[in-house]
## 1
Amino acid sequence: MPTLTKLYTLEEASQHNTSEDCWITIDGKVYDVSSYLDEHPGGDDVILGATGNFSISIHNTIKSLPTQFPDTANRLSMELYLSGFTLFLSKGKDATDEFEDAGHSKTARELLETFCIGELEETTTPIPELEIVSKKQQLNNLPQKFFNLSKQYWFAPITVVGLSVGLGYLYLRKKQAI
Ligand code: HEM
């Protein structure tokens, strides 16, 4: 039997990301929650933040901060690349984690179903449009890494020099005593 469910790609759903026209995708389904934004007890901003706007995850070795910069994506990607960060830029975002993390009640889940307009195409996955994780990045950062290491292990050369001076002194004293 042919399915009557309308299918969307994640990228298509991601175009609807404003307070007048807001779609979110949860568990493979697509919801048009535009009319519910103003009524949402958790505020409209959290739902808008879970839409498929450009989403950028920035990582370096010490911290990871997912954030959103819709307009400045290209400039930012270049700047971050140069400063040695790893950057993932994806167009299209799934809101399942945000929805689940808020601990919504059964009533909220039932209400959600009333806004369902279709499902995601099965092949749809968040596509990283730009992924900068390369060996080149590590090579570019060699001087910085060396600097970081020397900051971390500054005591090692001082210990070696100290030990050499001490041993030399003891050796000379012993030699003089003979
Ligand atoms: C996906 C992004 C969403 C996030 C991050 C989110 C977050 C939240 C948060 C933080 C609250 C608690 C507000 C408070 O008690 O101060 C809340 C409550 C609620 N939300 Fe959402 N929400 C989202 C989407 C939705 C959607 C799509 C619906 C329904 C169409 C919905 C329905 C409700 C309802 C009914 C409540 C009241 C408490 C409950 O019954 O669980 N939310 N939400």
## 2
Amino acid sequence: MTPLIRAENLAVEYGETRVLAGVDLALEPGEIVTIVGPNGSGKSTLVRALIGLETPAEGRVIRAPGLRIGYVPQKLHIDASLPITVRRFLSLPRRVSDAEAAEALAHTGVPGLETRQLARLSGGQFQRVLLARALLMRPQILILDEATQGLDQPGTAAFYRLIEDLRTETGCAVLMVSHDLHVVMSASDRVICLNGHVCCEGTPKVVSEAPEYRALFGLGTGGAFALYRHEHDHEHEGGAACTHDPAHEHHHHDHA
Ligand SMILES: Nc1ncnc2c1ncn2[C@@H]1O[C@H](COP(=O)(O)OP(=O)(O)OP(=O)(O)O)[C@@H](O)[C@H]1O
């Protein structure tokens, strides 16, 4: 199968700082892939580079011709002093019909919100409206950058069920960045563990049994917390996917 998006030996820099190096990645139609990794490990940067919002310092990103991407960014600040209804927001940047807007809102579990002010939605409603807008792109790939932040546990679980249903219904691929490890592990076909480079990757089963993953996330309920304590002192097997770039600092990830 031809990948929808492929990154080859991708490096991204902000000024003098290299935040991603040697990243190889390919997304096949219909698969759900999750990127995990500590804060500042380059997850959003990778997503932005895949979409074309960051220019590679090295390597390249290849997108299938005419690829339709639905993107839910990590942060979208809505200025409460600039009123905009849900309906108008759904027509940005592409104008959509009332019927399309209504269908997308129903699809994401928030029917009838059209006349509401965007700035006054609850966190969960807002995320679902963002998802509805992404769906209006009729995406072949849906890219979600920590789309469940601000949602409670049931809201998060429901959101991921919705993503899985959408994949089943539309056949779109899904690439998401997430810190919700338990849900990630159950909902993903493939997990990519990032820390400036790809630490380890594979099916949730393979990754969760990998020493790299265990070193990163620990076991049991402490796992999610351990995510933020990643000091990159674990050993890698094979090593091919893990060329440590000496220019890339790891110690600053110890945010615990
Ligand atoms: N526009 C920018 N200019 C300069 N540095 C940036 C920029 N965006 C991100 N960075 C830096 O690049 C590094 C990677 O950031 P990125 O947002 O990709 O990490 P992340 O893995 O998504 O983090 P988090 O889990 O906290 O969202 C960080 O050190 C960050 O400070």
## 3
Amino acid sequence: MEVVARLDHVTKTYGRIVALDAVSIAIPQGVTAILGANGAGKSTAIDILAGLRRPTSGRVEVLGGDPASLAVRARLGLSPQATALPWRLTVAETLHLLAAHYTDPIAPTALADRLDLAGIWDRRNGTLSGGQRRRVVLASALVGNPDLVFLDEPTTGLDVESRDLLWAAIEKVAAEGRSVLLTSHNMPEVERLASHVVVIAGGQVSQVGSVDEVCANVGLHLVEAEVPGPLPEPVTAHAVRIEPVGARTRLYTTDPDATVRALVRHDVPFRAIRVDRVGLEEAIRTAAEAKPSHEPLRTA
Ligand SMILES: Nc1ncnc2c1ncn2[C@@H]1O[C@H](COP(=O)(O)OP(=O)(O)OP(=O)(O)O)[C@@H](O)[C@H]1O
């Protein structure tokens, strides 16, 4: 596994708040998502990896060097959560200005095609909608032809069309062999884009692995079907959670075979049954509930 970035026993404190507590992570080549509740420490981890903040203690290595060094920063692209684009510049001026800072930039016009910027090319940034601004921010992160791109909640608040356009652009970035490190609270987005996940809880790493590993590690399967009325006890015996979803019922079960067998044996007239691995959202929620010992954010 090629590692593109690494935190080694990194602690970051803001006054008495311990935002990251001796965190060690190796970010592999590809698309990795850093997940966790609000305030878990995701943006702090990204900022440190992007060279925007220094850790209080511990070691950071990105693309084989120090992310604060010019040599490494020239190979990074950054799309932070809150970005102040120069208000009075047009989209074209912004991208040409940024491109001029790099030795081997992507042509701004190529980014215009990829991110559907033609219609807003001569508009001032200050007049753009939220979705249009996001596209310009992503273009700004890519214009330097980076090897590693940081995307902090890239599609929060976007409509479906804008989100799909950004997803396609991010997939293209990954297909070109660039690595991407993103944060998101949207699990379908993470399942679509990321191959690896790092889950942070209370400033510490609680889970790490491929999306499939994290989903499998929780030891649960989903059995979903249309069933009439309450289910007999043998059907629910292996279920750790039962959720009605419209006309359907979801059983999160430790033994999907036994659950389906019980439906048949007890003559429950089910329709349109689906047996699947649990999704990332359920896997992370279940793992968090199984480990209530996750320390809340501590203060120094
Ligand atoms: N500049 C700062 N000064 C003081 N405290 C900070 C600062 N930045 C972050 N924190 C605190 O550090 C902790 C981690 O914050 P961080 O922004 O890294 O979390 P996050 O996981 O990115 O959250 P969110 O999902 O809400 O964006 C929080 O308790 C936050 O209040």
## 4
Amino acid sequence: MAEQADVIVIGMGPGGEAAAARLARSGASVVGIEKNLVGGECPYYGCIPSKMMIRAADSLAEARRVPELAGTSQAVPDFATVAQRIRDEATDDWDDTVAVERFEKAGGRFVRGTARITGPKTVSVDGQDFEASRAILLNTGTDPAVPPIPGLAGTPYWTNREVIAAKDAPESLIVLGGGPIGLELAQAFARFGTRIEVLEALDTLLPLEEPEASRLVEDVLPAEGIGIHTGTRAESIEHDGTAFTVRAGGRTYTAERLLVATGRRVDFDALGLASIGVDTGARSVPTDEHLRIIDGVYAIGDITGHGAFTHVSMYQAGIAASHILGEETAGAEYHAVPRVTFTDPEVGAVGLTERQAREKDLEVATATAQIPSSARGWIHKAGNQGLIKLVADAERGILVGATSAGPTGGEVLSMLTLAVHERTPIRRLREMIYAYPTFHRAVEDALGRLP
Ligand SMILES: Cc1cc2nc3c(=O)[nH]c(=O)nc-3n(C[C@H](O)[C@H](O)[C@H](O)COP(=O)(O)OP(=O)(O)OC[C@H]3O[C@@H](n4cnc5c(N)ncnc54)[C@H](O)[C@@H]3O)c2cc1C
Ligand SMILES: NC(=O)c1ccc[n+]([C@@H]2O[C@H](COP(=O)([O-])OP(=O)(O)OC[C@H]3O[C@@H](n4cnc5c(N)ncnc54)[C@H](O)[C@@H]3O)[C@@H](O)[C@H]2O)c1
């Protein structure tokens, strides 16, 4: 006999955990199923511990900027401090007891196991059956994608899951992939003294972002001693028991450690999505504005393909939970999804890039302003690289996208996110007052350069 519940939540990433708790608190009977750790990738292997490493590494970089600005300094890196912080404060040593108890206190029933959807209302967890009267909510996230490079399988390579648990900064590290994971961690470890080589298959770093942002990180990272090799696809990999050797583009790279950060994968087959008519070969599941795949089955988070970010997962969780509860709720909108890569300078962006806007046949106008030439950037001096790029739909007189890269690029992005989200007329953005001398005054400068 299948165990009955109002709602079954499969996968408790950030959004699944939030939605499950809210639904349980509202009085619904909720079964939450998680095969690993409640909270998902973000707190245990992703955002939070990686940002703790970055915070620690950035403090070293700031200390090294003292001679240019304020005298002398000596920073002696010790990775043990942040490794311990990740254990004590971020991951509880990869133990989710507190999160499970929080869910149970909210009234939920927690089941540890691997769930498979068997029909529009039914779920099987390692042989135990469950039936949902109201909804099934999927929040199963992604796993690291490991390319089939000859020699790689079977070696002790790292993905984001192992690198986050490192107790020491290795002497040397090869990073496969110049996306957000690869670059954030490459810079963080470099600042702790690790010799880094980044191998990116495409011709630019951060290939999904504006070329100006890519060029910025391609300038900044080598200046810190990081080896950047774009257009470089690994052809073979060996591990001799102590070191990795990667062959690519006629060259050989050797390092103590190898980090594979080449994107993410999903296994919709294993999740049983064929049983509700989903094409299991697709990279994401199609959902309507209230996150339904079909009536009664919802999906949120990375698997929906609207940006693999915690804030998207949480945003969708709110909408899906409200809809399941029968509350009046606005549908999801994705025209102003913000994203920040936490390199130093941070690379923030929202909405469309120039290329995406042109592909949509918009009447595109763009403008850029350089942070070092703004008053605040000039004052800031050491570590002041950055830019604002605006992408406007000239016909409608609004911004449809923007990039904010700089020392606080992710924070400056907030005003641009609001402008794109609200479709604020450019005329009104030009009429407002920008505090002097802030980094965000560069937005005013860029607005003045739009035709
Ligand atoms: C190194 C790194 C850094 C990142 N930094 C940031 C950042 O700074 N900002 C940001 O917004 N995002 C960041 N992300 C992305 C972020 O972690 C994810 O977008 C976020 O976790 C949301 O994912 P999700 O909600 O889809 O689920 P996930 O967090 O992926 O969780 C899904 C859960 O489902 C479980 N599960 C899967 N299948 C089953 C099954 N069949 N049965 C039971 N349970 C199952 C998994 O065990 C997992 O716990 C980062 C990611 C990485 C890897
Ligand atoms: N700050 C943040 O918000 C943050 C940080 C980290 C990750 N994330 C999320 O996690 C997702 C995954 O991050 P990611 O960096 O792994 O993925 P990604 O897909 O963004 O980047 C992977 C990179 O690896 C390259 N690549 C693929 N195969 C390769 C190969 N064989 N050799 C060399 N390079 C190869 C790709 O061209 C790409 O540039 C991101 O899309 C992002 O949404 C977010």
